C-alpha cells in the first residue's frame, strides 16, 4: 500500500494552541506535515498555491469565522476535507456547521485527548477522501486506456500509433502532457508529443542553444533517471512528487513501501536525464513551470524488441498509484505489440511486392527468353550436325525450365485466390488421368492404382499439378531398372474432420531426410534446402486447402508420400 504524507493546513489565531496542536499531531500521525496560518486570508492564499489534504480551522477568528472560511475553501477546492474546531460548542453552531457541509466538527477541550481525537478525525477524513478520489480516477483511467487502445486497431503506421496515443492521453482530464521517445546509441530522442508542452522538450533535452533547431533533440541516458530505469528493467518508473525533494521510492518485487527495509528499497532521482544537481534542478524547474507535478515512464517492449518509452505527466503529486501503474504498464505492452504488428504488416507488403516482381519475371520474361533458346537450339542442331547432342541437352533443360514456369504460374494463381476451402473436386478421375499421361511418357514404369469409383475432396484444378508432381518425382528419382509406383485412395474419419488420403509409394531410394525436413520446417537455409520446386509447390497447394503432406518409408525400400485432403460431398447429392 502506497503511503503519502498528509498535508494539513491549520488555521488558528491562537499561536500557543496552534503550536501544541502541530506538535501532538506529528506525534500521533506517522507521516504528517502541519502548516499553520494565523489569519484566514493568508490560509486562502496559501491554499491557492499549494496542495493540501485537509483543512483544520478554528471557529472564532477576527475578520472571518470558520464557516465563512469553509465557504471560501469550497470555492477553491470543493471536495477538500474541512474539520471545524470551536471553543463555544453550542448546538446551533454544530447544526450550522453540518448544514454548511463541514467534514467533521470538534469542540476544543483541555489536555491531550482533544488532539488525539483530532488526529483520528484527520486520518479518517483524508483516507476516505483519497479512496473516493482513487476510485473515480481509476474508472476514468480505465475508460481512457480502453478508448486509446481501440485507436491502436485503426492505426496503419507506427507514426499513427504514437501520435494518436499522445494526443488522446493529453486531451484527457487525467494527464497534461505525453510524449514518446526512441532510444538509439544510449540517447533518448522525442518522436511525438501532445498537450501542455510549451517548449518543455527543447528546454530539457537541448544542451546547445546555438544548435540547429531542425535537428531532433536528444540527451544521453544517465544511470538512475526514470527513463533509463524503465528501459533497463522493462518496468514502469514514476516520479511521484516533482516539487518535492527530487527523489522517489521504487517498489521492489516481494515488498511494499511500508514493509521494506532500507536495504530492500531503492532511491532514484525523479528527473529527466541529468548529470548533476544543477541539471536536476533545471528539469524540476521546467516541469513545475508547466504544471507537471508527477510523471510516469512506460517502456514499450514486445518480446525482444524495444520500441522506446512513453512518458505521461499529471498536474498533481502522487497521481500514479499501484493500480494505475499496472494499467499503464499493460497498455505499454499493448502499444508495443501494435507497433510490432504494423511493422510486420509493412514487411509482408514489401515481401508481396518483391514476390510479384519475381513472379512476373518467372512467368513472362523467363518463359519468353527460353522459347528463344529453344529456337536457337533447333537452328544449331540443323546447322551443326556434330552439336546435335548438345543442342538436345539445351532443348531438354530449357523445356524443363518452361514447365517449372508454367507450374509456378498455375500454382501462383491458386495461392493468390482468397479463401482456403476450395470447391468439391473428384480426385479419382484426376489420378487416373495423371497416371495415363505419365505411363505414355514413362513406358518402362509399372504404375498401379487402388482407387474407389469416385472420391470427392476440397480443392481445385491445381490438384492435377499436385498428383503429377509427386508421381513424376517418384519416377524420375527411381534408380531401379523396374521402377514401381502405386497410388491408392482411402477414407479416414476422425472426431473433428473426415479426410481422404492419397498415398503414393515407390521402390526407389526414398526422399532424402534433409529434403523432408526442409518441407516440414517450412524454410530453407544456406546449408539445407530442397532439391527443386515441385515438392514445395505440392506442399503449398495442399496447405492452401487445409490439407497435410507427410512422408514415410516404404518397406523394404522406397518412400511413401501421403496427401491428406478434406473430404467433400458429391455435388450431385
Automatic annotation (TrEMBL):
Q: Supply one GO molecular-function term.
A: phosphorelay sensor kinase activity
| CDD domains assigned to the protein according to its UniProt record, in alphabetical order | HATPase, REC
Residues annotated with 4-aspartylphosphate modification = 58
According to the entry, every stretch annotated as the Histidine kinase domain falls at: 361-569
- Which InterPro entries does this UniProt record tie to the protein? CheY-like_superfamily, GAF, GAF-like_dom_sf, HATPase_C_sf, HATPase_dom, His_kinase_dom, Sig_transdc_His_kin-like_C, Sig_transdc_resp-reg_receiver
Domain (Response regulatory) ranges: 7-123
Q: A single Pfam family, by name?
A: Response_reg
Q: Which UniProt keywords apply?
A: Kinase, Phosphoprotein, Transferase
Protein name, entry field: GAF domain-containing protein
Q: Which organism is it from?
A: Haladaptatus litoreus
